[in-house]
Amino acid sequence: MDSSIFLLLAQDALTNGAIYILLAMATILIFGVTRITFLPQGEFVSYGALTLATLQMGKVPGTVWLVLVLGVVAAIMEAFRLQRAGLSREIPVAVVKTLIPPLVVSGIGYVCAPLNLNLGLQVLLTIMIVTMLGPLVYRVAFRPIADASILNLLIAAVAVHFALVGLGLLFFGAEGVRTPAFSEAQINLGVLTITGQSIWIYVTSIAFIGLLAYFFGRTMYGKALRAVAFNRNGARLVGISPSLAGTLAFALAALIGCLSGILIGPITTIYYDSGFLIGLKGFVSAIVGGMASYPLAAGGALLVGFSESFSSFWLSAYKDVVVFTMIIPVLLWLSLRSVHFEEEE
Amino acid sequence: MKTIRLLVGMLTIVFSATMAMADITIGVNLSTTGPAASLGIPEKNALSFAPKTIAGQNVKFVVYDDASDTTNAVQNVKRLVSENQVDLILGPSTTPTSLAVIDVAAGAKTPMLAVASASAIVKPMDAKRKWIFKVTANDDIYATAMVDHMVKKGVKTVAVIAVDDPYGEANTKEYMTLAQKHGIKTLMVEKFKRTDTSATAQVLKIMGKKPDAVFIAAIGTPSAMPHLALVERGYKGKIYQSGAAANSEFLKVGGKAVEGAFMPASPVLVAEQLPKGYPTRDEALKFAKAYEGKFGPRSTFASHIWDAFRVLEVAIPKALKAGKPGTPQFREALRTAIENTKGIKGAGAVFNLSATDHSGVNQLGMSVIKIENGKWALEDHTKF
Fold first, then answer.
1. In total, how many domains does chain A have?
2. Are B198 and A8 inside 8 Å of each other by CB?
């Protein structure tokens, strides 16, 4: 291996690592706020890329219908919940409130899809549709069992993963897609060719980390999320609704996933089931961060990116083995230090 | 609860009533979901071209999806032979699922017509494989077409990058055996995963060795990623794709980067360009017209199912003389009839089966294709 190959591999590692950072942040966010080990995080990645690709073809993506159906299901569940709680009079308002956002989003999606908008607007449309899925998935699959044990929540997450992958196949078909690059620009630095797309990835990752830091550090909603992550009951006592926090966390996670998908869509082929492996690598990064520390997880994401890139070079057949084996020493180290990041059950 | 039970009960009655009729029942097991869905979906599409009746008998289909999983495939085929008592199994779609169900099909003495590619499904011939057939070309037919072309083009050194699954494995092995015979040196075999986000590292390693050609062994769109990475890094040699890469989505994802690539593939793809009189030309055009009128760009996977029906249309009337559908006599006779298929012209191949060759596809079922202007162009075909 000479220095030019090293540089090229490192560049590859950084590009992938930047995506894993984003996904690791989403995973930690959801785990902190809702205690859900959200394995389907990667599905938002593939939904993002595939929804954009479908819009590019001027077709209505299946995710539009998914938003609509989940919205209706959520409204029905809301009505049942209120009726059971003896609050029948509140049902009409609650149903309308639950229905309006998904109706609006799927309506806009349906109307705008065949218009062949420019790339920027299509990206916005994609973000809107896929981000809407986050809160809906939370409302339908997780909120009814929000107080279950971590294990039960994990099992529900696995079920959601399978459901979303299956729906992905139904919506988008079995073959992969590539979306057009945001910019065709190329910068040549010696042996390195830095594409406009990878600059987009770096910039978006850094900007998003900054935004999240601002959100959690400075804004009321961000602080509320942190409070819930820190102590659910305490947060409830001071008037923070855990379900609102969960909804917000899922919306953010879906946004992050969708954005990652749109960013890597042009540099790799995305399949309906690509998301799982990508999400899993984000998850490994999150574990390196003890499912709690954002900076450590970012370090973990880069570690995953680098070990993936370099093991592909030396041992391409065992690449994923190398990446996933990394969890073992990390878990060992974490448990030896015996610091419990998880809240007490 | 009561209504649900009633409903289930009614459904069961309706279901068993349809089962009781003495039609020809064909059990289909395909991978319409999971990683191999890109094979299974066009195959399932092609089922819509099934003949409604053969020799005056109604043909019924029971279709299961194995989700590209061997355990599911075994369960499905067990259900097909025990519950549905099918006369023939059509499928499975992939090599691993096909290999997994051989025991079940042979155990139930039910003939099976696989649409997967590996030679291992029908070779070496033994008591079990007596019941197993396939309508696809064996690996060595593909490899022969490709290696012959490499020799013609003066390729001396080759690097292989294969998808990390049984298809990549089997294809690499078959290619390497033939390449060695023809004095082509294989420099290295790199692996990648279907859902990987990057193949840059493998490509860098390959380019360090400067091979005359790179052979990419993968199915469908995944084949595009290493190809794009090679072109992006400025690789100037020849790039060969495997036959299974040849679908329209691959062209779409690959775009300009895959121009000029070669692949051994079924002549179905270039039916219009085949010289008049090529044995499979007419049937291939017929298939292409039917499929493209209904489902979009033609697929070689779909053509396998189409060809299976051509074989069955001839074999079933012969078998009907020996017994009624649903009986062991009929299944035994059907097996013998399929084994004696001679000179049937399908869309993808001419089928000449024998007791030792249960694929029956010869080199006529293979051509070399070049990608030109985002379309398949016939580069070389077998003499006929």
1. 1
2. no
* pLDDT tens figures, B74-85: 999 999 999 999
Question: Residues of B with CB below 8 A from A15's CB?
Answer: 198
Q: Which residue of B has its CA nearest to A166?
A: B33
Indicate the residue of A175, A176, A313 with minimum beta-carbon distance to B205: A313
Q: Coil, helix or strand for B40?
A: helix
Residue A297 domain-assigned (yes or no): no
* Cis peptide leading into residue B92 (ω within 30°): yes
d(CA A18, CA A20): 5
How far, rounded to the nearest angstrom, does the alpha carbon of residue A223 sit from its chain's CA centroid? 21
Identify the structural domains of chain B with CATH numbers, from first to last: 2-137+285-362 (3.40.50.2300), 140-265 (3.40.50.2300)
DSSP, collapsed to helix, strand or coil, labels residue B332 as: helix
- Beta bridge partner(s), residue B65: B30
Note whether residue A233 is domain-resident: yes
Q: B198: which 2 tokens? A: 């990057």
Instruction: Nearest chain A residue to B169 by CA: give it.
Output: A317
A134 confidence band (pLDDT: 50, 70, 90):
very high
pTM: 0.81
Residues B186-244: tens digit of each pLDDT: 999 999 988 888 898 999 999 999 999 999 999 888 899 999 999 988 899 999 999 88
- Predicted pLDDT at B73: 96
Flag residues of chain B having pLDDT under 50.
14, 17-21
**Residue A235 domain boundaries:** 30-186+196-280
What ipTM was predicted for this assembly? 0.76
The pLDDT score that the predictor gives to residue B165 is 84
Contact A313 B195 (CB under 8 A): no
Tell me which residue in B33, B197, B221 faces A175 most closely, judged by beta carbons. Answer: B221
Question: Which positions in chain B have a beta carbon within 8 angstroms of at least one beta carbon in chain A?
Answer: 33, 35-38, 40-41, 164, 190-202, 204-205, 208, 220-222, 224-225, 247, 249-250, 252-253, 255
A197 vs chain B: nearest CA distance in angstroms?
14
* Structure token pair of residue A148: 């279950």
- The answer to whether residue A309 sits within a structural domain is no
